[in-house]
Amino acid sequence: MSTAPPAGPVPDPAPELFTWEFATDPYPAYAWLREHSPVHRTRLPSGVEAWLVTRYADARQALADQRLSKNPVHHAESAHAKGKTGIPGERSADLMTHLLNIDPPDHTRLRRLVSKAFTPRTVAEFAPRVQELTDRLIDGFQEKGSADLIHEFAFPLPIYAICDLLGVPREDQDDFRDWAGMMIRHGGGPRGGVARSVKKIRAYLVELIHRKREDLGDDLISNLIRASDHGEHLTENEAAAMAFIILFAGFETTINLIGNGTYALLRNPVQRARLQEALAAGDRELLATGVEELLRYDGPVELATWRYATQELTLGGQRIESGDPVLVVLAAADRDPERFQDPDNLDLGRRDNQHLGYGHGIHYCLGAPLARLEAQTALATLLTRCPDLRLAAEPDDLRWRGGLIMRGLRTLPVEFGDGPERTGTDASSAL
Predict the structure, then answer these.
(1) 3-state DSSP call for residue 336?
(2) Taking Cα atoms as reference points, which of 253, 209, 255 lies closest to residue 229?
(3) φ, ψ for residue 203 (rounded to 5)?
(4) How far is CA 154 from CA 136, 151, 160, 269, 382, in A?
(5) What's phi and psi for 415, nearest 5 deg?
(6) CATH topology of domain 20-430
(7) pTM higher than the cut 0.70
(8) What is the pLDDT of residues 202-261, one digit of tens each?
(9) What is the tens place of the pLDDT at every residue in 156-185?
(10) Residues 383/273, Cβ–Cβ less than 8 Å
(11) Residues 205-219: pLDDT tens digits?
(12) Which DSSP string corresponds to 181-238?
């Protein structure tokens, strides 16, 4: 546990949180919190009172603390039932029984059922499909010499990849892309578009589960059905919820990883040139360490998903009451100077990099191997095929999406000259 904050009142001026200015660059505010109020009680935009954990040592402890439950039933104010915590629409769509909302033993049982889809061997077998999708997307914009890398590249890549993983037929995947687009655009208000999309996805998944029972394939939904039929006691609601959370948790995190990562490289030309030189030389090591550093430096998940104290406990010198919501600020912890040397500097070759970008403990991100594959493939191919990639907007003109958990750009306009003709081996050889 980290050192307790200084006794006495918190010094002014305290940073203003959750404004548009904060969304653009939250790191100065997080630095202030780490120093002056590392476990900080605040009122969220939804009105919910919650604790923000900002130091690395406290964050790592909280992520693995069994006294902090993922199940919203432990929230004293029952804000989840009012749609103020968790994923909008998941309760009304009967999608609550997924890995982000449950504890052992149910968490252990359900995680085991899907873990085989994300083993290193399984993910490696998926690599050619990810490369094919990546090349196809770049083919779509390379000739015109410009693109919005969020909507034309970082967004569709994980959507189509996860649809393939789940077993969504190709003819239905554009519908999934439309629903997912509603989720990240927040159409009809900050939460309304998400809730509507959740209901559409839930209805489709239930129908798809029924179809697949008649024609099982080699995909994740078929494997969930097989597990249920072999005595694993997986209900239809659990199967739909598991498929939903793999989609929801997987696509937006990867969008932001690719988008934030590309933006960080464009803002750090020395590091970007270093990576391009390594790729040209077939150096796969810097690509791997580079993606880990991009996760640490400006990762896709700003705050870990909700936790609730099941009993009174002390964290970072603060007393947390039973029922209090706790949000671990991964973005703050991963720039803690007590843990990382020169944390505000991007160093693609950083060795000692036990970042928390994918969490820690039993809720460590199940899809991390797939996200790493997608990010490495996307960045290697993009920098190889568009070597003179450059930002086509002033950084101050870019806008970040509002929201509590995720961190990502709304758009990322870029320009580039004529890149090398694709041979099908340049980028993939770096993977």
Answers:
(1) coil
(2) 209
(3) -60, -40
(4) 13, 7, 11, 20, 11
(5) -130, 160
(6) Cytochrome p450 (1.10.630)
(7) yes
(8) 888 888 888 888 888 888 888 888 876 555 666 777 778 888 888 877 788 999 999 999
(9) 999 999 999 889 999 998 888 888 777 766
(10) no
(11) 888 888 888 888 888
(12) HHHHHTTTSTTHHHHHHHHHHHHHHHHHHHHHHHS--SSHHHHHHHHIIIII---HHH
Say how many Å lie between the first and final Cα of the chain, rounded.
38
* Domain positions in the chain: 20-430
Classify the phi-psi angles of 247: left when phi > 0, otherwise alpha if psi is within -120 to 50, otherwise beta: alpha
User: Tokens 């603060």 correspond to what residue?
Assistant: 318
Token pair 């693109």 is at which residue?
147
With bands split at pLDDT 50, 70 and 90, how would you rate the model's confidence at 73?
confident
Q: Is the dihedral of CA 256, 262, 264, 266 positive or negative?
A: negative
33-36 contacts: CB < 8 A, separation 24 or more? 33/329, 33/332, 34/332, 34/336, 36/5, 36/6, 36/10, 36/11
Work out the number of other CB atoms within 10 angstroms of the CB of residue 125.
10
Alpha helices in 65-191 (DSSP H): 106-115, 120-142, 149, 156-166, 173-185
- Quick check: helix, strand or coil at residue 248? helix
Structure tokens at 38: 């590392």
Residue matched to tokens 């085989």: 116
